[in-house]
Specification:
alpha+beta; 126 residues; Ubiquitin-like (UB roll); 5 strands; 5-stranded mixed β-sheet
């Protein structure tokens, strides 16, 4: 089983999170299972860019990027050569390391207002 490591799984200052994932599982599905904060406003249906991640290791083991994913990536923020949409990246047999984009972290908080409120309260008490 491949290992999938999330950089920034719970925000910018969080420690990396490594999980075992099933081959054929998407990065987005694995994130939801382990609680990594990868946004998914469209539910993983390739209609938005909120699951935008940067693949730091294992890029070549992921399926080739298709035109529709490229079209959606045109709407994303801070797109880089290693950018992919987590909903479109099915894992193979190799380990993969992804950094969750700032866009995706913000989208996850928008989708989870209780967590956003909790973080705001915690930040205010520091």
């Amino acid at each position: 089983m491949p290992k999938l490591t999330f950089i920034n799984p719970h925000g910018k200052k969080s420690l990396p999170l490594t999980v075992e994932a099933k081959p054929g599982e998407t990065i987005l599905d694995a994130a939801e299972e382990c609680g990594a904060r990868v946004g998914h406003a469209c539910g993983g249906n390739l209609a938005c860019s909120t699951c935008h991640v940067y693949v730091q290791q294992g890029y070549d083991s992921l399926p080739e990027i298709h035109d529709k994913e490229n079209d959606i990536m045109d709407k994303a923020f801070d797109v880089r050569a290693e950018s992919r949409l987590g909903c479109q990246c099915k894992l193979g047999d190799e380990d993969v390391v992804v950094e969750i984009s700032e866009e995706s972290l913000r989208a996850w908080l928008d989708e989870n207002p209780e967590a956003r409120k909790k973080e705001a309260v915690a930040a205010g008490s520091r």
